[in-house]
Amino acid sequence: MIKNLKLKACEKCQALVTIRYRIQDDDSGKWRLVCPSCWEVLAKDNPHYRYGGTWKAK
After folding, report:
1. Separation of alpha carbons 54 and 23, rounded Å
2. I want to staple 33 with a disulfide (CB 3.0 to 4.6 A). Which of 13, 20, 46, 58 is the partner?
3. What's the pLDDT band for 3 if we cut at 50, 70, 90?
């Protein structure tokens, strides 16, 4: 049986994904939900990076 997963768009690249990470990546303090690919790029060597949780499709 195949479940219907709720896909959500990455707030950076707009890719439809089943998992997104809630992060801060600049000095604005604004949270955004990004896909694993964007998360990898935004988190690396970023002094403003802060992790805030994981959203998973159900």
Report:
1. 9
2. 20
3. low
